Amino acid sequence: MQARIDILTNPVSAKVVKHLAAAAAGLAQTTLPPATPELVALRASQINGCAFCVDMHTKDATHAGESAIRLNLVATWREATVFTDAERAALELAEQGTRIADASQGVSDEAWAEAAKYYDEDQLAALVSVITLINAFNRLNVLVQQPAGDYKPGQFG
């Protein structure tokens, strides 16, 4: 399988990817627990059917020490006992933020309030940013049919 467009070499898409990557890099300095952004990115990527991002975030999380059990259970996090209440709140926010069109009011006040119990304002801003960016990357990769499986942990720095 080959992507419809090479988003890293096409001059237009390469600029967009560069800016998205710079925004994502800025999130590394937040006080979110390191596992949270990876779990959130993985869940949104599963929902959006972005194989490239599922591959990338699974491998990056594994490389950072995340357990295979937790990664395998992200898709069914509601029934899994391996996630903290804070992670559950972040995963719910990610799901609702990814499936905006599925709910008439977007992200519910209940989901926001639950996340706010565990994360301060800066961490909530980081979570919202992670969810926004992963959805942008997912859509970009799905649209161009970016193949998955060859990603190496840390490949993009």
From TrEMBL:
Pfam families: CMD. InterPro entries: AhpD-like (IPR029032), AhpD_core (IPR004675), CMD-like (IPR003779). It comes from the Bacteria. GO terms for molecular function: peroxiredoxin activity. Residues 20-95 form the Carboxymuconolactone decarboxylase-like domain. NCBIfam families: ahpD_dom (TIGR00778). This is Carboxymuconolactone decarboxylase-like domain-containing protein.
